[in-house]
Amino acid sequence: MKRLMYKARTEYLFHSHIKIKIPDNYEDKIFDELFGIMEQVDKKYNSYSEFSYFDLINKNAGKYTDVDSITIEILEAARKYSDFFDGVYDITVMPLIRLWGFYREKRRTVPSLHEIEKAKKKTDYKNIEIDPVNLKVRSGSGQEIITGSFLKAFAVDKAAVRLAELGIDNAVINAGGSSIRCFNNDIKKEWTISVSDPDESQRDLFDLKLQNKAYSTSAMGGSFVKINNKKYGHIINPVTGYPSENKAVGLITEESFIGDILSTGFFNCEPERFLQLMKILKRDMYIEGFLMDKAGKIHYSDGFEKHIIKYEI
């Protein structure tokens, strides 16, 4: 059998190295088109990009801002899953992120309860008003939306749509390892990805096989602050105001956007709640996953282990 040959390109977007791999019989201009699509998502919807829709919403907090239909689509999905998670997923969590020293000002002490409660008052997705008819959005006064939990994955899905339009059904988009989208056909039946140990980045927990699926992960990784010799991760529970102590979440879904939202929400859940909510989601979508708790114990959904590759020794 003839060995499959591929070509790849890596570019830096969304503070990550994005790698796209396609069969080598396609022209390089396809990379230009796919990365161009992702760059437009970054420019128009990244809350850190000046004059993006979310940047304008943040600058006009408390007032209505004109947006487009995609901004509405993103916000409605975020609100849906914030409701699903009873608020432990919240895109207005930026005041707490700043408070814990994850933006520009570093901290040397753990925030006081008073500081946390003050930041929490500005953290509530329910204060975002969405007008899908007139394409207007108003966040609460003093609120700040952050798109980091989903936008990279949203861009991956947009590039995936174009791949399908071009008839490319054998490819991988790897967005910094935290959001991966795989495409398979009868020749290339599956892709193998390695899941890193959050405690030891040079070691893998296991390898997974994916067939036309997306893999999303949330973990502390290198994104933490160290206060009094203790590490605090960057994923903050908006309900408690404190960083989650879980170590990792990994999900296999049909699309990256929803997978990334869900992995962030699950990172703020206790293991029992994770397993309970996974069963609910399975009624309406394909989803499997695991949660590694603060003690390092891994909790699997019912069908996740079928994706783990068992190597013969």
Automatic annotation (TrEMBL):
Swiss-Prot/TrEMBL keywords: FAD, Flavoprotein, Lipoprotein, Magnesium, Metal-binding, Transferase
Binding site for Mg(2+): S149, D260, T264
Cofactor entry: Mg(2+); Mn(2+)
Record field: catalytic activity: L-threonyl-[protein] + FAD = FMN-L-threonyl-[protein] + AMP + H(+)
EC number, as in UniProt: 2.7.1.180
Gene3D superfamilies on file: ApbE-like domains
InterPro entries linked: ApbE (IPR024932), ApbE-like_sf (IPR003374)
GO molecular function, one term: metal ion binding
Cofactor note: Magnesium. Can also use manganese.
Protein family membership: Belongs to the ApbE family.
The protein, known as: FAD:protein FMN transferase
